[in-house]
RNA sequence: GGCCCGGUGGCGCAAUUGGUUAGCGCAUCAGACUGUCGAUCUGAGGGUUGAGGGUUCGAGCCCCUUCCGGGUCGCCA
């Protein structure tokens, strides 16, 4: 290139008038008026208008949108009345003396505008074009700032940044592993990390005291709008700590991120709510507390009512809970049906409702309950005339899950969520174990390395439901942003937990023997947390899709439309590993099954 | 794997109850134009409506199968 830039496209102002400069960038738009051409040159930093006189400008012509061009010219003030107030460089323009086409372009497949509505797989196929859009460029720069600040805080707090292996031992608990076959050890495989959990705990046994890492984690599960097969975590671990010590570091980090990057003040410490409390009030362990409509337990009244659906649910050990929608008596049947559909998605058999009109009760529940029972429920739930009450009666997990989602749907539908608010909170005191009715077994709710708060029972059983762990989640605006715990540092406790979730001694030694051995040699009490970095950036920017904060994401089918991965293995890749792929395997299983 | 939504020129959309030659905006190409700023004006080209099958005198529209994309449930310790 002959014309190498002296400035970027966002920095020239009145102060530069008279200077001869060179700009390099992309053609944002090129407006040809015949006798003169206006060329908007764009780079990451901004857009500067260049004026080309086709008669005198060397190499001056109309350039194709998105081609890469260099312009040498003189900075001049724009004539009176032609200032563009929308741009930082709007007071000046570059009178082009010479132009050079640095990178020609084919006609682009879609327009590059901020509010793109091009379908996403096409945007991903041409990611380099899509990324030139301001919202995506901004996300990348913003994300870089987030990690910069995180590193500043953690280094200032004397954390050591350590890289842990990508090729590690497979431990198929939890999510499905991505597997990497070993060439040097035929017949064996590595796994890609679902998280560096055991390595970071081992680093505590190493005596590093405070560790952090911004690392990739990989889980072979189905994708969602907020879930990618590979994602990034801010992972940290500290020795000789209680949960409060972990909270303090994260609170410092998060408040500083919000302050520096969004100019918003968050409280110095975040509210702590117990798992019991958030489930009771919101039915979900990641509550969006930016609006009300909390769940109301009317089981006591429902237990003795004549409505079998209600009384039966309570008798079976479940509950009847309600959401009161203030002014909800105005809601039409269509909207209530839509809410019922939400409830059913989450396992509810139905969504009972009653409108409290001035002239009486209206709705299916009204027919089955006496007026006294309805009035008692109104009082218990805090409902008034003009309100709508929505009920779910079922087993507790179903009641919680369905009403929690009905509540969120109402929040969106009735526009109750104050988007200007940032509600950050800790959810604490999670149960350590959960019972999986399908599998008929107990398993660890978070993971198997969390220190119990109370003594463990001798053998698996119902008593496990009452065991709580030093477990905590960070929740921001209803998003699970991070999860952590104080860990087990005593090998006999760790062995006991393995045993309680049905892992025999032999199996435990095969999978985690190396780690149990590490705990036997002076392991410090320790704890930590991992934050989802992609989600954090997504929430900070107010985006609703995780792909928009990741440079080269996969689509919902796990395919990268840009590179077309995954792809058929090439050459002797498989032979070297002694492998054979059998894509028809799944079809066969289907037809034979 | 289940459910919901979608697939129509390069991109975004439209097309009464099934009914002429499938329209519109942007983009593209050609021409005009010395103050635009996502320029404007004039004109032109560009489509086997994702694929396959069926119903019908007639299918973009209805039915079946299938592929692709988005969302979601399951799943994600």
Q: How does this structure look, described?
A:
Helix 3 crosses helix 15. Strand 7 and strand 8 form a beta hairpin. The strands form five sheets. The protein has an eight-stranded mixed beta sheet, with helices on both faces. A five-stranded mixed β-barrel has the order 1-2-3-5-4. The relative contact order is 0.10. With 593 residues, it is of the alpha+beta class. It is built from 17 helices and 22 strands. It is 30% helix and 23% strand. The structure holds one RNA strand of 77 nucleotides.
Quote the beta fraction: 15-25%
Main sheet attributes: strand count, strand direction, barrel closure: 8 strands, mixed
| Percent in helix | 25-40%
The radius of gyration over CA amounts to: 30 Å
Averaged pLDDT: 93
Derived from helix and strand composition plus strand pairing, the structural class reads alpha+beta
The DSSP helix count reads 17
The oligomeric status of these chains comes to single chain
Strand order of the largest sheet: 6-9-10-22-21-20-17-11
Distance between the termini: 64 Å
Q: Could you give the topology of this structure?
A:
Elements: E1 20-32, E2 37-43, E3 46-52, E4 68-77, E5 92-103, H1 120-125, H2 127-130, H3 134-156, E6 160-161, E7 179-181, E8 189-191, H4 197-205, E9 210-218, E10 230-239, H5 243-262, E11 272-274, H6 275-282, E12 295-297, H7 299-302, H8 308-315, E13 319-325, H9 333-345, E14 352-357, E15 360-362, H10 364-368, H11 371-381, E16 388-394, H12 396-413, E17 424-428, E18 433-436, E19 441-444, E20 471-476, E21 479-486, H13 491-500, H14 505-519, E22 526-532, H15 533-541, H16 573-577, H17 585-592
Parallel strand pairs: 3-5, 6-9, 11-17
Antiparallel strand pairs: 1-2, 1-4, 2-3, 4-5, 7-8, 9-10, 10-22, 12-13, 13-16, 14-15, 14-16, 17-20, 18-19, 20-21, 21-22
Helix pairs in contact: 3-5, 3-15, 9-12, 13-14
This protein binds one RNA strand of 77 nucleotides through residues 28-29, 31-38, 40, 47, 49, 51, 53, 65, 78-79, 81-82, 84, 86-87, 90, 107-111, 113, 116-122, 171, 173-176, 194-195, 197, 219-222, 224-225, 227, 341, 345-347, 443-449, 501, 555-557.
